Amino acid sequence: xxxxxxxxxxxxxxxxxxxxxxxxxxxxxxxxxxxxxxxxxxxxxxxxxxxxxxxxxxxxxxxxxxxxxxxxxxxxxxxxxxxxxxxxxxxxxxxxxxxxxxxxxxxxxxxxxxxxxxxxxxxxxxxxxxxxxxxxxxxxxxxxxxxxxxxxxxxxxxxxxxxxxxxxxxxxxxxxxxxxxxxxxxxxxxxxxxxxxxxxxxxxxxxxxxxxxxxxxxxxxxxxxxxxxxxxxxxxxxxxxxxxxxxxxxxxxxxxxx
Length: 258
Ligand SMILES: [Zn+2]
Hints:
The termini are far apart. This protein has helices spanning 27-37, 50-58, 85-95, 114-126, 136-145, 161-170, 192-200, 220-231, 236-251, and strands at residues 10-15, 39-45, 63-67, 100-106, 129-134, 151-153, 174-177, 185-186, 189-190, 205-206. The chain is α/β, with parallel strands linked by helices. The longest helix has 16 residues, at 236-251. Helix 6 links the parallel strand 6 (151-153) and strand 7. Bound molecules: zinc ion. Zinc ion binds next to loops.
């Protein structure tokens, strides 16, 4: 395998630059890590938006920000019943530009609680993607609230590839990231059931590192190299789409100046 600069570019669709990473991995270090790994663009959602905005300011051609409904890590398990999340989202949406709202954790009937419903209304008003770390039930409820929603399904719901294929078939506006799972490829080979799903829906998958703790930033290069290995077991055009073209096509133009 050649140097990252000559290798398959990567669009990393699942990154976080949350408050506890800002001092440990400063902005310039993040950008150096991405460059060395051959990550040409990254979709980033962060608990705490200020550091994420600094990152975006430093490299608007590389960083695509999403607005997370979490001010800090502790919001993960409580945000969907926390009314104060909505004014926070409104305040941020009035000041900054985003490609989506998420990644948020939301399961089952919680998706129909008032706070998630208002979040979906804000996404609709601003024309934003939803990046959902959700089970099938919650994804279905989000689509019922907003049938035209565009949803990036984090970790492909940690579902089996057959189930993922069913969902992709049912919902044309559903994409899936493969972050934080390894069952689809190992030792440079793609799992047969996953291969069938990738071949059936080559336009709907993206890779992602999921830098959910600061230390994970030091894993970005290794993850990019590992992704290139299993992707090389797919036909070249499918591998290119999953590696970067899908992310570029779906998110790449969202933040260009109007
Ligand atoms: Zn995540």
